[in-house]
Amino acid sequence: EPRSPCCCLAWALLITAINSLVFLLNLLLMFVIFTVVLLPTIVVVYFGFQCHSQVLHSSARYCKSILDDNSSSALIILGFVIMSPLLVVAMAIYCSLARRLQLLVCFQPYSLALYKGGCCCHPGKGAPCCARGCNTQLKAWV
Q1: Does a structural domain hold residue 130?
Q2: How far apart, in whole angstroms, are the C-alpha atoms of residue 22 and residue 28?
Q3: Tens-digit pLDDT profile for the chain (142 aa)?
Q4: Does 51 fall in a domain?
Q5: How many domains does the chain have?
Q6: Which residues cross the membrane (predicted)?
Q7: By C-alpha distance, which of 139, 76, 73 is closest to 109?
Q8: What pTM was computed for the model?
């Protein structure tokens, strides 16, 4: 049965808030995974740029004693070369974790705002965000 316009608007706002929260959690998870996996690349490129005389030319002891311009250039090149495989690894980790936690199932459809008695989860999927005890007999379609 359709909801009243006021109730429909309230449910639409609630569903928008839930979907935004799920999106932000996915974004945070992706940011953490990519930061951890790409940390070696970030460190190598940072030290390469920091010690190169044409870029920052730091006066740190390790820049004077260990890294000259040639080794700094090598670090910069190495950092950008290892970035591609690490991006693939980070995306594979995120995708497998999102599939295992069923994060994409947590997005709620806007049809819940239009009709009363709709089921907010997919029965049998077992996603962590789904409401337990979902009544499968109540559907908006036949």
Answers
A1: no
A2: 10
A3: 677 778 888 888 888 999 999 999 999 999 999 999 999 999 999 988 888 888 776 777 878 788 888 888 999 999 999 999 999 999 999 999 999 988 888 888 877 777 766 555 455 555 455 444 444 454 444 4
A4: yes
A5: 1
A6: 21-49, 74-94
A7: 139
A8: 0.69
The Cα 81–Cα 79 span in angstroms is 5
The residue range of the domain holding 93 is 5-106
End-to-end CA gap in the chain: 13
3-state secondary structure 52-88: CCCCCCCCCHHHHHCCCHHHHHHHHHHHHHHHHHHHH
Residue type at position 6: C
Rg (CA), the chain: 25
Residue found under tokens 């730091």: 58
